[in-house]
Specification:
InterPro entries: DDE_SF_endonuclease_dom (IPR004875). The protein is of the alpha+beta class. It has a 4-stranded mixed β-sheet with strand order 1-4-5-6, with helices on one face. It is extended and about 60 Å long. The protein has one domain. Strand 4 and strand 5 form a beta hairpin. The longest helix has 16 residues.
Length: about 110
C-alpha cells in the first residue's frame, strides 16, 4: 500500500476557555504546582486526518449544542476550511463520523 493511501485519523477533545480563569497553587521553591479553574468550560472535539505522504484532510469540529450557533463561526475567514457538527455533549458520535467520512474523506481521497 502506497503511503498516499494510508491514513491516520484521530479525534481530540479540547476544553475551551480553561486558561481564561485559573490559579496556580504551589510552594515558592517547588517545581510542581497545580492549576485550579472555575469549571466553566466547554468541550469541542476535533477530528483530524493525515496521509502517509503528508496530505492533511479537512478537519471536523464538533461543538456542544442542539443546533449550530452562528457566533461560533464569527471569526472564520474564507480560507478557513473545516466541516462542522453539533452534539449534545460536544463529542463526536457515529452519525457525525459517518457524515465526515462521506463529506470529507471520500471526497478528498477519491482520486488518490
Amino acid at each position: 500500500i502506497a503511503p498516499s493511501n494510508m491514513y491516520n485519523m484521530d479525534g481530540k477533545g479540547l476544553m475551551m476557555g480553561v486558561a481564561l480563569c485559573c490559579k496556580v497553587i504551589g510552594k515558592r521553591d517547588s517545581r510542581s504546582a497545580k492549576l485550579t479553574e472555575d469549571g466553566s468550560h466547554k468541550w469541542v472535539t476535533v477530528i483530524e486526518t493525515i496521509s502517509g505522504d503528508g496530505q492533511v484532510l479537512w478537519p471536523m469540529i464538533v461543538n456542544k449544542g442542539q443546533a449550530h450557533n452562528m457566533s461560533w463561526y464569527a471569526k472564520l475567514k474564507k480560507k478557513d476550511v473545516a466541516t462542522f457538527g453539533v452534539s449534545e455533549k460536544g463529542w463526536s458520535n457515529e452519525r457525525l463520523r459517518l457524515r465526515w467520512l462521506k463529506k470529507v474523506f471520500d471526497k478528498e481521497t477519491q482520486e488518490r
